[in-house]
Design brief:
heterodimer, A: 318 residues, alpha+beta, 8-stranded mixed beta sheet, 5-stranded mixed barrel, 32% strand, disordered N terminus, B: 63 residues, mainly alpha, 0% strand, disordered C terminus
């Protein structure tokens, strides 16, 4: 199978057409840096590998010789599935293994068989590492973004779990006074709908309609936008101080119910992306969410998918 | 003595009523929480521009 090119699916041809334009917008390079949530990722390619960011990353690109997380990227002829027992198996694309030098992510896709298409080796603090891409599964003549989903978010949540913050499943909105409103929800709860309802209001900034990073800074909690958007396609590198948290639920009217702190922390945890294999990471995450729940009012927000929902939030904050 | 009497009502006010600990259930979505699956194949979202970089890698809709 080595060296064999797999057949291209119709959807992939469409993707390549899009990436043709993408290539014009974002020329390939051997170095690439971007900053999300105040954390800078720097990628350096080796050999003939050309890097190109996802188009959503354009707004997050920075000039940085050295990042908070530094990665070297290279092709490899083939990868083998690790024989050891994983620390964690996602049930999907990735598994995590303990290594003497830190950790190894191995990426498998059922359609590709039992051979990994990618590996990422990281030190124990997730500050540096290398990413290996198996040539046989990529078009090596084209630039690639080696941190494609889910590796980009995995690196983020592991770095955040080292005392930096958390990533939550939420839409983040900064109102005309600069106050941050965080609307939490699983898939289908109404995050993108909420983002669209607020989109055209004057003075509003939407940080993301799907993934928000929370960090403590200057004695308070801040929320940061990410490139990982939802169906509304909204992503911004902006940030805002967090003023209120809402747990989204579809309702027959607009209704806000205050949550006790303990329940709020639990509901936040249920919508947080964290390192489930690491006791240390879970401990930090729970402590951080406990602080968030103590410092920021949290409520259930049952809402109608129309303008009245926005007005209800504005009235409550007035 | 007077000081003590004066303080007691204040302590009662600030402590609040005792509430017994109770177990609450929250709804988890493990398939979303672990970032193991693509959201919707070919649709917008965190995976929109990534899954097709690898030939057919992302055929596991989930999060």
């Amino acid at each position: 199978m080595k060296g064999q090119r797999l057949p291209m699916l119709p959807s992939q041809k469409e993707s390549l057409r899009e990436n043709g334009l993408h290539g014009l917008l974002f020329p390939s390079a051997s170095r690439l840096s971007y900053r999300i949530g105040g954390i800078t990722f720097s990628l350096q390619s080796e050999g003939d590998l050309n890097l190109a960011p996802d188009r959503e990353l354009a707004a997050f690109a920075v000039e940085a010789a050295h990042g908070d997380v530094n990665l070297s990227i290279s092709w490899t002829d083939s990868l083998e599935a690790p024989r050891s027992t994983p620390l964690f198996h996602s049930g999907g694309l990735w598994s995590l293994f303990a290594e003497p030098s830190g950790y190894r992510f191995s990426f498998l896709a059922p359609v590709l068989g039992m051979t990994p298409y990618k590996e990422a080796w990281l030190d124990s603090e997730f500050r540096s590492g290398r990413v290996l891409l198996s040539r046989r599964f990529f078009d090596t003549e084209r630039p690639v973004f080696p941190l494609e989903y889910p590796l980009d978010e995995l690196l983020m949540i592991h770095r955040l779990s080292r005392g930096e913050g958390v990533e939550v499943h939420a839409v983040g909105i900064s109102d005309e006074t600069g106050r941050g409103h965080l609307f939490l929800g699983h898939s289908g709860a109404g995050k993108s709908t909420t983002a669209r309802l607020w989109l055209d209001r004057p003075g509003i900034r939407i940080l993301s309609d799907d993934r928000i990073i929370l960090r403590a800074r200057e004695g308070r909690i801040w929320m940061y936008g990410t490139p990982w958007h939802g169906d509304a396609g909204i992503a911004s590198p902006d940030c805002a101080p967090l003023s209120a948290i809402y747990l989204l639920e579809h309702g027959k009217s607009n209704e806000q119910l205050a949550l006790p702190q303990g329940r709020a922390a639990a509901e936040l945890f249920a919508r947080t992306f964290t390192t489930h294999h690491s006791g240390e990471g879970i401990r930090f995450t729970l402590d951080f969410l406990d602080r968030v729940a103590r410092e920021v009012p949290c409520s259930i927000f049952r809402f109608l998918p129309d303008e009245t929902a926005v007005e209800a939030i504005c009235r409550a904050g007035a | 003595m007077n000081d003590e009497q004066d303080r007691k009502p204040l302590e009662r006010d600030t402590k609040g009523a005792y509430e017994a600990p109770k177990v609450i259930r929250v709804s988890l979505r493990p398939e979303e929480a672990v970032l193991g699956h693509c959201k919707v194949t070919g649709a917008g979202g965190p995976v929109a521009t990534s899954c097709f970089a690898v030939y057919g890698a992302c055929r596991t809709p989930g999060s």
